[in-house]
Write a structure and sequence with these properties.
Strand content: 5-15%
Radius of gyration: 33 Å
Number of strands: 3
Shape: elongated
Helix content: 40-55%
Strand order of the largest sheet: 1-3-2
Length: about 130
């Protein structure tokens, strides 16, 4: 075993520097836990996550719907960019509204008149009931 002798002041300075580095590393770890890094993922990971084909992802790139980076033929996407794509294409629901298609056939079966007639217990083929449905 080898023993190294250094002056007391040099040892204290070295210990202070090690403590400063340890505090910095601890601070960086806690910051990384609070703010996750915006990493990069490849096309396969994006397709798997979004459950889309590689051709659909290519169409998104061609229509400039998603930003990407390409290195020697390999394409990468930021995770935040995939999240932005999802957020930009969110479809809001309409509260208390329903869409019904009017097929316009003679028996009224399956169209909005038929549904309203069934709800109210009326017959669409009866002229008086039909007026009530309207």
């Amino acid at each position: 075993m080898e023993v190294i002798t250094i002056e007391s002041q040099v040892f204290k300075d070295l210990t202070a520097k090690i403590n400063t580095i340890a505090k910095f590393v601890t601070a960086m770890q806690s910051k990384a836990e609070e703010e996750p890094e915006d990493g990069w993922v490849d096309s396969y990971e994006v397709c798997t996550f979004l459950k889309i084909s590689s051709r659909t992802l290519q169409r998104l790139r061609a229509s400039h719907s998603i930003n990407y980076s390409q290195i020697r033929g390999k394409i990468y996407y930021r995770i935040s960019e995939v999240q932005r794509l999802l957020q930009d294409n969110i479809i809001r629901r309409r509260s208390q509204s329903y869409k019904m298609k009017d097929f316009g056939n003679d028996t009224f079966s399956g169209d909005c008149f038929d549904i309203v007639g069934k709800i109210k217990g009326l017959n669409c083929n009866n002229p008086k009931d039909f007026i009530e449905i309207l």
